[in-house]
Amino acid sequence: MGKKSKVYYCDPKYIVTDKYTDKEVVYVHPIKHINREHIRYVPRHVYKEETIHEVIDPGDPGKCGCKKQKKRRKK
């Protein structure tokens, strides 16, 4: 038999096969709906009507208020 040959070991070369598996990750995005009711003050004019009946009494007339006419003398 012959002499055994010397064996040298080199650094290994890597052959990588990547496999991807999907895994769900949940991201929560909160949405808040805000319903606002704004109060606007609008003027409403209301008029209160009132009717007043007045009776005006001038009082006792006493004199008739006519001017006295002078009598004409005959010539």
From TrEMBL:
Domain of life here? Answer: Bacteria
Instruction: Report the protein name in the record.
Output: Spore coat protein
